[in-house]
Specification:
The chain has about 280 residues and is mainly alpha-helical. It has one domain. The protein contains eleven helices and two strands. A two-stranded antiparallel sheet has the order 1-2. Helix 4 packs parallel to helix 7, helix 4 runs parallel beside helix 9 and helix 7 runs antiparallel to helix 8. It starts with 9 loop residues before the first helix and ends with a helix. About 50% of the residues are buried.
């Protein structure tokens, strides 16, 4: 199976995308899918599957970085995975059944929705205020101590809302490669009252396991249902994107402490809305 080096430019692009994704908690596939559809002219189902395979390695690298910092609440993560994994399976099966024009329409609409959610999401001062309220509560069910010795004590509120959005986000993830990280992180902080560093790290853990399930389904489709040319093209792409996102996944947690998250999220929100509108225009 011949592989091509024509996609070399995706290596530096993947480093930048994964760094931003890890620093903000936004799923990297939300950047890669439009890139693959608009720039590389891949079919939506192929682009979404390739983006998920790439995101798996980027988020896997990020999970390792957050695990080393001891910021992941694995108990909460397991509770959310019970709902996100079935959602991801459902979304993957649904994506394979839709024609390209439907996937493009759903993806364009979905990415606009994600952009609006990011625009309306919590600002840095609001996150700091919520973190202070969590620390001020008298009783806590969970105590997590990170590698630096910082203590995070909290009690998870409205757990059913967290599970609901894990299921919805998982379905979006499997179908259009985006949604779980963007929906889940906000609700873990705002509704479930999980401290923001723990919420980001735990959300990324849940995403990487859900992405593993969804990407396996898409890769199985490439290997069995698609022609050899598509599989060769996918492998030619990921041999550059995977090393890039692995490196970016290590840089992201370090960058998180140095950037202004409000400005970054505002810029990304506007970018998503613009890309989504462009994709919908392409369908017309």
């Amino acid at each position: 199976m011949p592989l091509s080096t024509e996609y070399w430019f995706l290596f530096p692009a993947a480093i930048a995308i994964a760094t931003v994704a890890m620093a903000t908690g936004i799923g990297g596939a939300v950047f890669f899918s439009p890139l693959f559809i608009i720039v590389l002219r891949l079919e939506p189902s192929v682009a979404i599957g390739t983006a998920l395979i790439t995101e798996l390695f980027g988020f896997g690298s990020g999970v390792f970085a957050y695990w080393r910092r001891r910021l992941i609440d694995f108990r909460l993560g397991r509770q959310l995975l019970v709902f996100s994994i079935p959602g991801a399976i459902f979304g993957t099966l649904a994506a394979d059944a839709f024609p390209a024009v439907v996937l493009n329409t759903v993806f364009g609409t979905g990415i606009i929705f994600i952009g609006v959610q990011l625009y309306l999401s919590l600002r840095k001062d609001e996150v700091a205020e919520l973190d202070a309220r969590i620390r001020g509560e008298e009783q806590h069910e969970t105590l997590l101590v990170d590698r630096a010795g910082n203590e995070y004590a909290y009690t998870i509120k409205r757990p059913n809302q967290g599970r609901l959005f894990a299921a919805i986000g998982g379905a979006f993830l499997g179908a259009i490669s985006v949604g779980l990280a963007e929906l889940q992180e906000y609700h873990l902080i705002a509704r479930c009252r999980v401290p923001s560093p723990v919420a980001v790290a735990t959300s990324i853990f849940v995403v990487v396991v859900s992405v593993l399930v969804a990407s396996l389904g898409h890769f199985y489709y490439f290997a069995t249902s698609a022609d050899a040319g598509v599989l060769s093209q996918v492998l030619s792409i990921v041999m550059f994107t995977i090393p890039g996102v692995v490196l970016g996944g290590q840089l992201g947690p370090m960058v998180q402490a140095t950037v202004d998250p409000d400005r970054v999220k505002l810029g990304i929100a506007l970018l998503f809305i613009g890309v989504g509108m462009f994709m919908l225009f392409m369908v017309l």
